[in-house]
Design a protein that fits this description.
By secondary structure, the protein is of the alpha+beta class. Helices cover 30% and strands 29% of the residues. It binds ligand LPXRUNBV and zinc ion. The ligand Nc1nc2c(c(=O)[nH]1)N=C([C@H](O)[C@H](O)COP(=O)(O)OP(=O)(O)OP(=O)(O)O)CN2 binds at residues 20, 37, 43, 100-102, 128-129, 131-132. One of its GO terms (cellular component) is mitochondrion.
Length: 142
């Protein structure tokens, strides 16, 4: 009999501050493009992340994967490096990468993909605010 495919999601919130600023742009360009988000002293967000995996529902365990394991991976990839941090100053990845929600989604995707079995990670959804939401599914283009 063919296996059923399921999607499971774990939600995690964290707090962090950041500033949108690109080292490859002039100060004037940074101000024009990022506006208030380029404020030198930064600003904060209560981020919410949804991590979704997709896979076969195991006939013996009834699970796509154990949510307890997913919770532990989220602790390593999201909470330890990002919670209560200044993204630009405390997280080496963002030293030269602008801390947009798009790039934050990629950071989380790459970290989760390293810990999960190949092909299981389906989607990272980051709510920067209630109104600003980014989805990343590992896609790339040339
Ligand atoms: N493509 C992106 N654009 C912007 C990002 C981003 O990550 N990707 N981020 C920001 C800022 O970080 C900023 O904090 C957004 O906040 P704000 O505009 O205040 O948020 P809201 O739209 O939810 O607030 P309202 O003023 O209530 O509409 C900017 N752009
Ligand atoms: Zn912001």
């Amino acid at each position: 009999m063919s296996a059923r495919i399921g999607f499971i999601t774990r939600v995690q919130s964290f707090c962090a501050s950041h500033r949108l600023h690109s080292k490859s742009l002039s100060d004037e360009e940074n101000k024009r493009i990022f506006g208030k988000c380029n404020n030198p002293n930064g600003h904060g967000h209560n981020y919410k992340v949804e991590v979704t995996v997709r896979g076969k529902i195991d006939g013996n365990t009834g699970m796509v994967m154990n949510l307890t394991d997913l919770k532990e991976h989220i602790e390593e990839v999201i909470m330890k490096p990002l919670d209560h941090k200044n993204l630009d100053r405390d997280v080496p990845y963002f030293a030269d990468v602008v801390s947009t929600t798009e790039n934050l989604s990629v950071f989380i995707w790459d970290g989760m993909a390293k810990l999960l079995p190949p092909g299981l990670l389906y989607e990272i959804k980051v709510y920067e605010t209630e109104k600003n939401i980014v989805v990343y599914r590992g896609e790339q283009s040339n």
